[in-house]
Amino acid sequence: MQREDWNRKYAQNEQLWSAHPNRTLVAEVEDLEPGRALDLACGDGRHSVWLAERGWSVTAVDFSEVAIAKARKRAAVAGVRVAYRRGDLLDFEPAPGTFDLVLVLFLQLPADERRVVLSRAAAALADGGTFLLVGHDLLNLTEGVGGPSDVRVLYTPADIAAELPGLEIEKAEKMLRDVADADRPAIDVLVKTRRTIGYETSS
Where are the alpha helices (DSSP H) in 13-166? Predict the structure, then answer.
C-alpha cells in the first residue's frame, strides 16, 4: 500500500488497530531493562507509547503523516514523550549501534525492500541490544485469517532469520494468534535476536 492509502485508512478510522499493545511484544519485552528503543512502522503509536510508559526513550518512525499525528496525540494523552518522525523506511537510516531495542511489527514489504529495512534495523542495535519482529506468516494466506493477500509481502521465520546475519537468533518461529469473530487463528512470525558482544555468525 502507498502512503496515501495508509493516510486514508488512518483518517477514516478513529482507531485502526487495537488500543492495547501486541501481546507478543509485551511478553518478549516487558522484562527487558529500559533503554533506547526504535519503533519502525510505528503506526498510531500504541507500541511506542507503551514503551515510553515503561521508561524507554523511544524514537518512532512511520511514513503516514496521519498516523504520526495520531501517535503524537496518543503520547500527549498518556503524558509521555516520544520522538516521532515521519519518514519512509526505505530512506530512513538510523545511526548504527544506537538502540537497545528495535521493533518491526507487521511491516509487510516485498523481499528486496524488506531486506533493506532489516539490514539497517540490525545495524542500529547497540551491543547487547534486542531486535523483535512480528508479522504475517506465509502460511497465513491459506490457513490463517486476516493480513495481506499479496504473497510477495509474506514470509517465514527462516526467511527473516536468514536476513539478519551477525545477530544471535533467540527465537524464529510461527505463532497462532486468536482473532475475534474468526473461526481460525491468524498465523504470525516471531523472530527475536540479540547483538551479543563478540558474537559472530557461522556462515
Answer: 23-29, 46-53, 65-78, 111-123, 140-143, 157-162
CB count within 10 Å of CB 177 equals: 19
Tell me the per-residue pLDDT of 61-81, one tens digit each, with 9 for 90 and over: 998 899 899 999 999 999 999
What's the pTM?
Answer: 0.89
Can you say how many angstroms the Cα of residue 201 is from the centroid of all Cα atoms in its chain?
23
CATH of the domain at 177: 3.40.50.150
Q: Which amino acid is at 47?
A: H
Report yes or no on 6 lying in a domain. no
| DSSP code at position 21 | P
**From CA 132, how far away is CA 24, in angstroms rounded?**
10
- Three-class DSSP category at 48: helix
164 within some domain? yes
* Number of compact structural domains in the chain: 1
Flag whether pLDDT at 199 surpasses 60.
Answer: no
